[in-house]
Target: FAS1 domain-containing protein
Amino acid sequence: MSKLLFFVALSILTLPLISSSTSTSSNQEVDAETWGCQDSFASTSSSTSARSDQEEVDAVIKTLLCQGGFTIWAKLLEISKTKLVLPVNATMFVPTDAAIMDLRYATEMNPSLIPYHITPKHHLLLSDLYHLKPLTLLPTLVPWKTILITSTSLSNYKIDNAIITQTDIYVSSRLVVHGINHILDLNPQRSSMPPLLRSGNVLGARISPAPAPASA
Model:
C-alpha cells in the first residue's frame, strides 16, 4: 500500500510537467522568481553556516528548482523532508525529471528511493570522485545496499546504470549534490561483476573510504 500511495503522489506531482515546452519554460521562470534564484543562488550552495536537516534540504530544493530539470526530485524532497535524516557528510545523486518520468522505473517508486540515492560519510565533490577506482562500492542510507562505481571516465562517469551528467550542483560543508540521467536501481543487476558485487550487499565487499582531499 505504501508503494501505491507513493506512486500516486508522484503521478500527481508530475502532472504540471507534462505540457508544452513553452509552458514548462514559463513554469520554470515562475519557480525561479518565486525562489529568488537570481539574487541568492550562489549564497544558497556556498554557505558554510550550520543548518538543521530541514534547512539543508530546503537549500537543496531551492537549488534544484533554480537549476531546472530536477523539479520532480525537488518536490519529492519537499514532501519527505520531515522524515529525512541527513548524515553529517553526504553525497546525493539526483535523477533528472526525464529519468523519473520514465515508466520503466515506475515499480521502483518506493519510500527507499531518496535514501538509496544518498551516500553517507562521503562528501564527494567532482575532484573527489575522480580519486575513486572502478568497482568501488559506496554505502547508501538503505541498510546493506550499495552503489557501484562502474566507470571513472572523464566524459562518462557512471554509478551502476547512471551517468553523472551534472556535477557539484549543490555544495555545502556537509552535502554535495550531483545530477544523474537514471534512477538508481535498488536491486541492481550485476551479473557480470564479481560475486561480492552482484547483489549490492555491503557485507564482505570493498567499500570506499572517504577520499583524501585533493592537493592544492
User: Anything to note?
Assistant: The chain is about 35% helix and 20% strand. Strands lie at 90-95, 118-120, 137-139, 146-153, 156-159, 162-171, 175-180. The chain has a mean pLDDT of 74. The two ends are 51 Å apart (CA to CA).
